[in-house]
Design a protein that fits this description.
By secondary structure, this protein is of the alpha/beta class. Helix content is 17%, strand content 36%. The strands form four sheets. A six-stranded antiparallel beta barrel has the order 1-2-5-4-3-6. It has a five-stranded parallel β-sheet with strand order 9-8-7-10-11, with helices on both faces. The chain is globular, with a radius of gyration of 20 Å. 39% of the residues are buried.
Length: 326
């Protein structure tokens, strides 16, 4: 059975944990109902963090030939909302509720040229895509961007697999990627697949638009965690419910609203689908739009917010935002 967009829940037994870097774990799970994970697939899983149950998504890095075992990569983030901490506390023998692989980031095989662009832990979404393009003998480039070399956990394997098609850029070695050069080298027949921090995604999207390239050839998946500013607590007034909720620095607005007993429609929880959209009545401070769903114009207008990832920030007074569900 191929991976699908339907959620089918199963048990995932932790059978192996590798420390790939001080802040990165490779975790192998044995599926109770194995299916094939197509390139770009991810799984959702349920974690317990204190009294909370957290739902998180992780890309499938690799899979055993019999499809039974899948491996994911987990970065322990500095401003974790609890998920990555709980994942790093897992032990062999633990059992999780996980979905069968879900495909929301499919690889198309009809392009003239391909660019795979991974930023940091975003590499997990693209490893299998690179393997698939190599098998298909496609014309592709695989670009991997990291802050420091010790975080380039897949670099050696990728260099061996892809040879001259692979490029590694390391920020703290004065070898930074020029997004402008990368995008300008892509022609109209190029599809670019990317996964990484929101800053990298924003830069690529701006350059893609600047060079008048076909927007349907720009395909991406996000983490839903990174932003331009350090997270800080802020207050949310839910006007049509007469409620006030405080969002902590280590939780999302969506998590805080759900913890307060509100039922919020949500799906991706990574700022991609727009299902968790709330209408903004007014705000005190600046909305930091961390999503990739809204256009630059919509973000500038500030009339809507993707509450799964976006936040309020302020340089002086405590930030606040008033929203309505309807």
């Amino acid at each position: 059975m191929a991976a699908t967009n339907l959620e089918v829940w199963q048990k995932g037994l932790v059978v192996k944990i590798d420390s790939a870097a001080p802040t990165i774990r490779k975790i192998t799970l044995r599926q109770s109902m194995p299916v094939k994970a197509e390139p770009g697939s991810h799984i959702d899983l349920i974690l317990k963090s204190g009294k909370q149950q957290l739902r998180r998504s992780y890309s499938v890095v690799s899979q055993s030939p019999d499809f039974v075992e899948i491996t994911i990569g987990v970065l322990k983030t500095r401003n974790s909302r609890g998920g990555s901490i709980a994942m790093h506390e897992l032990k062999v023998g633990d059992v999780l509720d996980i979905t069968q692989p879900i495909q929301n980031f499919p690889l198309r095989y009809s392009a003239e040229n391909y660019i795979l662009l991974a930023g940091g832990i975003g590499i997990t979404a693209l490893v299998e895509m690179g393997e698939a393009l190599k098998r298909a003998r496609a014309n592709y480039r695989f670009v991997y961007v990291v802050k420091s070399r010790n975080l380039a956990i897949f670099a050696n394997d990728l260099a061996t697999t892809h040879g001259d098609n692979f490029q590694l850029f390391v920020d703290d070695e004065a070898n930074e990627l020029s997004v402008e050069h990368l995008v300008s080298s892509a022609g109209q027949g190029t599809e670019l697949y990317m996964c990484g921090p929101i800053r990298l995604m924003d830069d690529v999207r701006r350059e893609w638009k600047k060079h008048d390239l076909d927007i349907t050839n720009l395909r991406y998946e996000t983490f839903g965690a990174g932003g331009w500013f350090e997270p800080e607590p802020f207050k949310v007034h839910i006007v049509d419910r007469g409620l006030e909720v405080i969002v902590g620095e280590n939780e999302s607005m969506l998590d805080a609203l759900e913890s307060a007993g509100l039922e919020v429609m949500a799906d991706c929880r990574k700022g991609e689908c727009g299902l968790c959209e709330l209408r903004v009545v007014n705000s005190k401070g600046k909305i930091e739009h961390r999503d990739v769903f809204y256009s630059e114009e919509q973000k500038h207008e500030g009339r809507k917010i993707a509450c799964c990832v976006s936040r309020m920030v302020s340089s002086d007074d405590s930030p606040e935002i008033s929203v309505i569900f309807g």
